[in-house]
Specification:
Helix content: 10-25%
Largest sheet: 6 strands, mixed
Shape: globular
Distance between the termini: 48 Å
Radius of gyration: 27 Å
Number of strands: 33
Strand order of the largest sheet: 27-29-28-33-26-32
Length: about 800
């Protein structure tokens, strides 16, 4: 989230698109109801199903799964055509006035530089014109046809209400009503907040879905303000924390990057991470990258990381591919190129796409380690459970080792919520049987591996044997010790760079914040964005002061929010170029003539003059990006692409299937289904009564939603002769499932490109383990392809067929 759950109460308009907060985030949805009750805020829901969120919305519009970009580009086109733009904000705080290179162009669904063979672009023209002074060339009048604004205006002009209806199936009048309601928040005293979740991320163009709404929010002036923002609703209480500390194959904690093969030394690695400002006097805070990186290396390897060995740069792995994401991992496994898999707190057999492929892949491993508090389907993939897991156990030779772990309620530590709040919690019980904490298990493995390397050596044991491990009990570090390590400390006394006689921090002290980080080896910090969470003031994550001065929704002394306890990112943008709040009744930050003051921690240098330094300090431009340059694989502007499995051809270019730059493995390409064989659009979703695949192990939850079902419209049920509550078979090109049919008014047929499109909704909470009745999940049907930027699987839009069938034999 750019903002926070508690800030939603400040909004005038909530748009839930790509999520279902009332059902999937019922506690957080409280703040939507507060905004409606106390501010008269309106709620819009755009979704393929009439969800529980839609049931309390002021306006609902249906949409075909996988067509959000066409809808949002249509809204942007509407705002531009009707002059519903926060012009002062756009001209001062976005890159609208910047000129783009002459070679850049867009035509028929593709940008300049596309190579069909490589499924990738030459992005050299996707950049700004740079003047002789080394800065971006600007046209403040917006008259030049090469300025970002005019290129964007041209790009979205094709997304008329008629084309939106043709692609999305959203009736024209409903689209126009939504566009009109959204456009009203271009006023300086009206703000909109966007709430989205997996309904946007789980697409082959999921990253562009999110960016599309962020562009709209910039145009409306809704980023950095109270009641505005882009608010990602995390599916787990600590998914935000997982990404923050870099538990992905291409990241280092704090959103730093793992080096690639070509970056043979530290100088080469840092050469592409200088982040020099592209406009005069801009902050470009990523210029401090080396400080973050060196401090991370010192936290990992201590004295072994020194200037003579480039701070142990060679200890880090080097990527030979962009990432080893879950899809690539299981592809390698499927090819027999992976020997072992360590699965911690995950249930891939239900959570990853194309379950048949997953089973084959797991069966080719030599060993599989499961570290989980529950007996998961992945741990039992080798057991035959009839139609629910029809495998030949005798032929599966994978050795499976289960390490029972603790549940979150049995642990002490911090969880990072959607709003970036690190909230400390305490164990509510003791684990049963032989269950041990994740930390204990990993520490034991680490110590034993280290002992083996020390005894037996190896080609390069240094990264293991030199790991910093300064815990009171090396076999079981405490959560407090780990938290302090994430916060960072001074390895040597830190002085003021402008006055070496002035001491900022004594040796051995916890860092106050990342402002004290140095690139000379004098500081250690495992995750720079967490610096400040556990400093000399104590465990700030454990704070429980719910005072909220002037009822702003900031709650600055409740827990701790990264970075530096800032609750609303880009909050300098809540004030105009002179530093005065756009809406004085919702003041957040204000320039008093010498410094920034207000309710939140300024997201800018406290003394940065408002008419000089831009609010988007992490960007080299100092502004928000309507034009993304080469940072998105599909292009600098979002384009509508159909899902890889779609009931219609792409109206913009029928020759383009799916996202033209998504990675597709050969065998998976051959398994994509076509509408002639699988005529119905399907999507997955979640239920309030269950949490992913956990709560089917609980009798209470299992009794509330005991049985797998699929949801279809009355019209489709009549067409296929399916009785309410009757059994149906649903199948795709990858597998089939059997389920009860929930025939409902909540899903309606849509008219898309002259064709009636029926939608099948498939919830995901069942498997063959636990207390609930055995069932299936949508991943038995979904394609093995992901988002082009993040590789998140496309679970939200695929093709199926459906027919009535008989139930299981009693």
């Amino acid at each position: 989230m750019t903002n926070s759950w508690t800030d939603i109460k400040n909004t005038d308009l909530v748009v839930i698109m790509g999520g279902n907060a009332a059902e999937a985030h019922p506690c957080g949805f409280k703040w939507v109801t507060e905004a409606k009750a106390n501010r008269g805020a309106k709620l819009i829901v755009v979704d393929p199903r009439f969800t529980r969120s839609a049931s309390v919305a002021d306006y609902y519009a249906p949409i075909r799964p996988g067509t959000d970009i066409a809808f949002l580009n249509g809204v942007i086109n509407y705002c531009i055509a009707n002059d519903k733009v926060q012009w002062e904000y756009v001209k001062a705080f976005t890159n609208a006035t910047y000129l783009v290179k002459d070679g850049f162009d867009y035509k028929d669904g593709l940008f300049t530089g596309y190579d069909e063979t490589r499924r990738d672009y030459d992005k050299s023209t996707w950049d700004y014109q740079i003047g002789p002074d080394g800065f971006i060339v600007v046209d403040d009048t917006l008259a030049d046809p090469r300025c970002v604004w005019n290129l964007l205006k041209k790009h979205v002009s094709i997304y008329t209400p008629e084309l939106v209806e043709r692609i999305c199936g959203t009736p024209k009048d409903k689209f126009l009503k939504v566009a009109q309601m959204i456009s009203e928040t271009s006023a300086k005293d009206k703000y909109m907040t966007s709430m989205y979740a997996l309904g946007w991320t789980q697409h082959s163009k999921g990253s562009q879905n999110i960016r599309n709404m962020a562009m709209l929010q910039l145009i409306l002036g809704n980023i950095g303000v109270r009641g505005g923002g882009m608010n990602a609703l995390r599916g787990h209480s600590n998914i935000q924390g997982l990404t923050d500390i870099g538990l992905m194959s291409h990241l280092i904690p704090g959103y730093l990057n793992i080096p690639v093969d070509a970056e043979v030394n530290l100088d080469k690695y840092l050469s592409t991470r200088k982040f020099a400002p592209l406009r005069p006097n801009q902050t470009s805070y990523w210029q401090n990258y080396k400080k973050f990186f060196v401090s991370f290396q010192k936290s990992m390897w201590g004295d072994a990381a020194k200037t003579e060995n480039d701070w142990a740069y060679d200890y880090l792995p080097k990527l030979d591919v962009p990432s080893y994401d879950i899809l690539r991992a299981f592809e390698l496994m499927h090819l027999g190129q992976m020997n072992g898999y360590f699965c911690q707190g995950f249930n891939p057999l239900l959570a990853f796409p194309n379950r048949k492929k997953l089973t084959v892949a797991l069966s080719k491993l030599k060993w599989l380690v499961i570290m989980d508090p529950l007996d998961t389907e992945t741990a039992r993939f080798w057991e035959n459970h009839g139609e629910y897991n029809d495998v030949d156990t005798a032929k599966i030779q994978t050795e499976v080792i289960q390490l029972p772990a603790t549940c979150f309620a049995e642990d002490t530590g911090s969880l990072v919520n959607s709003g970036r709040w690190l909230q400390w919690h305490w164990a509510g019980g003791t684990p049963p049987g032989e269950a041990k904490s994740d930390v204990w298990i990993m520490a034991q493995l680490g110590q034993r591996l280290k002992a083996l390397y020390q005894k037996e050596g190896g080609p390069f044991p240094d990264p293991i044997v030199n790991l910093t491990w300064n815990y009171q009990d090396p076999g079981d570090p405490t959560p407090e010790e780990l938290a302090k390590e994430l916060n960072g400390s001074a390895l040597q006394t830190v002085t003021d760079p402008n006055d070496p006689t002035k001491t900022i921090l004594q040796q051995g002290k916890q860092l106050v914040s990342f402002a004290a980080l140095r690139d000379d080896g004098s500081t250690a910090c495992a995750c720079w964005i967490y610096s400040g969470c556990f400093n000399e003031a104590g465990n700030n994550m454990a704070r429980r002061d719910n005072n909220d001065r002037d009822d702003t929704g900031v709650f600055p002394n409740w827990a701790w929010s990264w970075p530096v306890n800032r609750r609303i990112l880009y909050n300098r943008a809540s004030a105009d170029v002179s530093g005065k709040p756009w809406d004085p009744s919702r003041k957040l930050m204000e320039w008093n003539g010498t410094a920034w003051t207000g309710y939140d921690v300024p997201d800018i240098a406290p003394n940065a003059k408002p008419d000089v330094v831009g609010p988007f300090i992490m960007n080299a431009e100092g502004t928000g990006r309507l034009f993304a340059r080469a940072l998105m694989r599909e292009g600098p502007f979002p384009v509508h692409y159909e899902p890889f499995e779609s009931p219609i051809a792409n109206p913009l270019n029928p020759k383009i299937r799916g996202n033209p730059v998504s990675r597709v493995f050969k065998n998976d390409l051959e398994q994509f289904g076509d509408a002639k064989d699988f005529p119905y659009a399907a999507t997955s979703y979640r239920l309030t009564e269950h949490f992913h695949y956990w709560t089917k192990h609980s009798k209470i939850n299992a009794s509330l939603q005991p049985e797998f079902f699929v949801e279809i419209s009355e019209e489709l049920a009549k067409e296929k002769n399916i009785a309410p509550g009757g059994w149906v078979k649903v199948w795709s090109n990858r597998g089939s499932v059997r389920a009860k049919a929930l025939v409902t008014k909540r899903i309606k047929p849509l008219m898309c490109d002259g064709k009636t499109v029926h939608v099948v909704g498939i919830p995901l909470h069942w498997g063959f383990m636990g207390e609930a009745r055995k069932g299936f999940g949508p991943n038995s049907l979904t394609p093995f392809v992901g988002d082009a930027n993040a590789e998140t699987p496309e679970f939200k839009a695929f093709l199926v067929d459906i027919e009535p069938t008989t139930g299981p034999v009693a």
